[in-house]
Amino acid sequence: MATHRSTYPRGVTSLGLGSVLGASTNVVFSHVAQAVNPFVVTLCMVTVSAIVFGIVNRGRRPLLNRDTWRAAIGLNVASAGAYVCLVVGLKYLEPAVGTALQAGAAPLMTILVTGLLARRFTAGPAEWCGGAVILAGSGLLMWVSFTGRSALGNADTGGTAIGVAAVLVSGLAMVFLTLCAKRLTQLGWSNSAVLAHRFYFTIACCTGLSIGVDANWSALVDSAGYLLPFCVIGSGVLLLLQIGIRNVAPFVVMAMTNLNSLLTYLLQLFDSRLHLSLSTLYGIAVVLAGLLWIVITQRRGPRHPPG
């Protein structure tokens, strides 16, 4: 319990700062994905991160055995699902809605996934209550998107459906990503090792999906001046998220990522293609109410036996 109290503030602070920076990257990637194929945007993002953390981790070989191989492979597959699907979702949805839906379903997904893996559900009333409130807010945001009340205005129903499905899959992938990254840290991997070896499958998938598509390279070149710096910022977001994963429970990590939605909402006001949507803000407020409940109730550590 003493260890939990000493590491919890560090983990929550890292996740909060990561949310601030992550919100800015979400808005930029969403804007670029309107003109550039989302698979190409994702490829640029993860390639920069792979280079950055490859340099940071150079000369350090992580522990390799059966358990670490399994967790590393799971981490790579989950990373591909999380980032590819998120950028696809941001192409069709208001950025704040996309990030809120991705993170909103994650707490309950975490409860279900960890319960199924452990063959028993250990979540207490606080977790279920907070997750249910976040899920209610997510449902409100889906309604906002399908009825044309989001910052995009009247949206294509088919495109909205693709966007909603993509970000929900991304949220589920984030659950597995968090669990696999947590497992690797428990097996002795450093933060830099986890980050340096997580993008192989994502790069392979994005490269394959980018072949033969209209990438609109001229638009990519035009946006490179601000896209590249935000790809580097994205690397910082990943580091802060990894620090959070190391220091707090997976459920709290998934809940804290919901901060992205409010910050993204504020930053997207600078995007001229979007207008102010109070309906989106109401949905985000419900999501954040569930988030605050979870963070406060988890402050002193879980009230149930660890899974």
From TrEMBL:
The chain crosses the membrane at residues 12-33, 39-56, 68-90, 96-116, 128-146, 158-179, 199-217, 223-241, 248-270, 276-296. It comes from the Bacteria. InterPro entries: EamA_dom (IPR000620), EmrE-like (IPR037185). Residues 15-142 form the EamA domain. Keywords: Membrane, Transmembrane, Transmembrane helix. Belongs to the EamA transporter family. This is DMT family transporter. It comes from Streptomyces lunalinharesii.
